Amino acid sequence: MSETQTLAMLGWSADIPPAGLWRLRIVLPSGDYSMVYSEWDQVGPPSLMQRYDALAGLGYAVVEGGPDAWRWGEGLSETGGLMVAATTPIRLLTDREATAQAQGAA
User: Cα dist. 25→58, 64, 103, 106 in Å?
Assistant: First the structure.
């Protein structure tokens, strides 16, 4: 991964608010999180299509598609609760993709 790569991070935590929700966030090259995100209240992670649609709605697309493009990991939160996360490199939508996304949303 390049130090200047923007990432999508899909995460779930049992104890970090909003507990139990899957959240898709944008991790900027600086390491900061974008203020925009998508959430799902469901058992199990969102499907690839749900993730890709959410990314497009946020103005991004994956660099490489497919389930193997997402790197999964798990760990513990600061309070000892389970955390599950996946990341994948992303890029801004091209003008053509953004136009198609806007037309599809209308």
Answer: 9, 17, 24, 24
Positive or negative, the CA dihedral 53, 103, 33, 64 is positive
- 39 or 19, which is more confident: 39
Residue that has been written with the tokens 């999964």 in this structure: 72
User: What CA–CA distances, in Å, run from 82 to 10, 11, 13, 19, 31?
Assistant: 14, 11, 6, 11, 22
State the Rg of the chain over Cα: 14
Amino acid at 86: A
pTM of the model: 0.84
pLDDT of residue 97: 85
What is the CB-side half-sphere exposure of residue 13 using CA atoms within 13 A? Answer: 16
**Backbone dihedral angles phi then psi of residue 5, each to the nearest 5 degrees:** -85, 135
Residue 65, φ and ψ in degrees, nearest 5 = -90, 180
Give the up-direction half-sphere exposure of residue 62: CA atoms within 13 A in the CB hemisphere: 21
